[in-house]
Amino acid sequence: MAEGTPGSLAVVGTGLIGTSIALAARAAGLDVRGFDPDPEALQGAVDRGALEPAAGVEACVAGAGIAIVAAPMDHVTETALACLRADPDLVVTDAGSAKTDVVAAVDAAANEEEAARFVAGHPMTGSERSGPGAASASLLDGTAWVLCAGPRTSAASLEVVESLVRAVGAQPLTMDAERHDRLVALISHLPQLASTALMRVAAVRAAGEPELMLLAAGGFRDLTRLAASNPELWADILLANAGRARDAIDVYVDSLHQLGELLKSGDRDALIDVFRRSKEARLEMGAKPSAKVGVAILSVPIPDRPGVLADVTSTLGALGINIEDLEIVHSAEGAKGSLHVTVEEGSAEEAVRALADRGYEVGRLA
Fold this sequence. Notes:
Layout: E1 8-12, H1 16-27, E2 31-35, H2 39-47, E3 52-53, H3 57-61, E4 66-69, H4 76-86, E5 91-94, H5 100-109, H6 112-116, E6 118-123, E7 144-149, H7 155-167, E8 171-174, H8 177-206, H9 218-223, H10 231-240, H11 242-265, H12 268-285, E9 295-303, H13 308-318, E10 323-330, E11 336-344, H14 348-357, E12 363-364
Parallel strand pairs: 1-2, 1-4, 2-3, 4-5, 5-6, 7-8
Antiparallel strand pairs: 6-7, 9-11, 9-12, 10-11
Helix pairs in contact: 4-5, 8-11
């Protein structure tokens, strides 16, 4: 455990994110207690071996060095304040997806000493699946964890939270709350809205065209995966950042309109240029900074069962093939998915052959 990391963690809210954080913290050697007002969610986290259960917020945070509020957005502020007031030595952070209103509300309601111990946070990870049963410590591996200090947050509290973030395998990134909300509206909230809108359009059209969904292939399924997300959770997230989400929609609609105009004009060269630049940007995002040039991205369809990921990685590892990046793309149906495996270009053919010998149908995305 890293120096400066508290030895005990309290997790208030044991859904997907709270339980994933608890699992990662336990793996890092921390003692973890948890509480959730939903008894089934709390028991689910206990069954996963993520934490010891507590009977309430006060019992959960008593004596802990740090508490993480992983509650729904409309309960984050009140829960954070309850944690701050339950233990005068406790540093409190949260895992909510919108930060400006939370930072302002906690600062307005807290006294000087309480406000110094609050650090708003947002681990940039998740899944279309929900609940403690879908949790995994690996959700945090290498992910950016944004920290937004309030006007009275102390440097010592920020250091405590940064140390915890590193201990569970994530990367702390400090940022102003307003800037965070503006950026996540584009990179997180807009994808959810776009996926939901596309699925809604298809579902409406399918009422009159029953064969429509039978034609849905990998591209449609990839783009609509997020539409299978928790409806209540996303309604609260988007309402908490509604203005910036609307701005992101406007930008997206304008981009779609520009593509429509290119189709109308028949300008093939301009259309190819748009596709090319978007492809280059996507490939830049899909590789580590040290390996952006000379990589291949392999798509490996896999069944959703234990041991498959280990089989793929051990097969490549036995050949000395380094995995530069790995992305798990879940199917909304839950029974299958794909691995996007990034390897060095020179190893791509050998990797494809080895995985094919294990029975996998491997395709190249790039």
